[in-house]
Design brief:
The protein is mainly alpha-helical. It has 3 domains: 6-123, HUPs (Rossmann fold, 3-Layer(aba) Sandwich); 125-158 and 185-262, Serine Threonine Protein Phosphatase 5, Tetratricopeptide repeat, CATH 1.25.40.80; 273-438, DNA Cyclobutane Dipyrimidine Photolyase, subunit A, domain 3. Helices cover 47% and strands 6% of the residues. The protein contains 19 helices and 6 strands. Strands 1, 2, 3, 4, 5 and 6 form a 6-stranded parallel beta sheet that branches. Strand 4 (92-95), helix 5 and strand 5 (118-120) form a beta-alpha-beta unit. Helix 15 (333-343) packs antiparallel against helix 16 (349-360). The longest helix is centred in the middle third of the chain and has 22 residues, at 241-262. The radius of gyration is 23 Å and the shape is globular.
Amino acid sequence: MPDVTALMWFRRDLRLSDNPALLDAVQAGDGRVLGVFVVDPLLWKRSGDPRREHLATSLRALSKAMGGRLVVRSGDPVTVIPQLAEEIGAVSVHISADYAPYGQGRDQEVEASLNCPLVATGSPYAIAPGRIFNQQDRPYQVFTPYFRAWLEHGWRQPVDAPQNVQWVKADSEDLPKGEAEGAGEEAARKHWQTYLEDVGEYDDVRDRPDLDRTSRMSVPLKWGEIHPRTMLADLARQRSGGAESYRRELAWREFCADLLARNPEAAWKPLRSEFERMAYDEPGDQFVAWQQGRTGFPLVDAGMRQLAAEGFMHNRVRMVVASFLVKDLHVHWKYGARWFMQSLRDGDLASNSLNWQWVAGCGADASPYFRIFNPIGQGLKFDPAGDYVRRWIPELRDLPGKAAHEPWKHGGADGYPEPIVDHAEARREALRRYDAIKA
């Protein structure tokens, strides 16, 4: 009797532990599994260098854990996966479910092109999108009741990596080139275990970019180098307000995924239809200044320069720079969201677009539009000694303490621009435009 082989198609689950789809593949193939990653030219093109570099490093780590037998193929998965399944005589193809708009359509096309079953097991979430409904059997539009239902629903415990897998060989292209620090399953788990020692202070330090004490787990979560169930199991053993708050942030990530799965157009279109009437300015020189971190508002500029240097930005600062673009420069949030997706190492469509909508006031359970962050006030409050600003803006390093947030009051700084807008006037104009869509 010939050997059977299952095909495991890795996507956003670049790990061996707590991977239900992989366990199913091992069972279906009687231990014989071919693991493949498809470099999709469309997704590769849309990703910026930080995301590509992290992915390349993570794939090398995954292949090493598989004894060097990860198969890499480039091309449209709708063609590549059926061809590879036919090539090895796969009894089935196994995936973790993808709920993003492009991923759902792609997987439907792949399934229609296969001569064997496409089996979806698990997802990148503790609770997959579309599983939680209110008492009227409708999806939630507001986070707090969603969070309560999410906790009540619960999730399965993590599962171990499969033992004694026989990784099957096949022709493979070279792994993508790129180098990123801290990528891969082992690095993600070590980083998480280290962070758990400090998670109790999460409430106290989460909004302080100067302290740089956030977990940065958004990057391994993006690539599935660790599953949120693993993290939730560890958090369940913690007894602190910080652990509770962190759990809430994981739920917010899943709320965003749920919203996008049910509203695919929300990637670039406001969930609140009245905002389609909002008057925005076309991106111009001020948008370029925002991208380059040269707006003359130190906290905004520090965040944008951190983004350019690290492919990452502190979450509090993300909210400030987003508010500045939409409500001070009056540019549509979709342009900022696209720049973030191109620039971020942790760029995730659901989290990115729905968080931009939250700041812009046009999403589900959004921050009110009239909540307009004062970039100077935010800097003074959350970077009180100016350390974050000086870290990323060398022109301001000679300004002591909080003076770094208002350089124009202290003689300015060589090479640093004057503010490109008057915040008070920009705020009044933003509210005027908002009043116009309410009329």
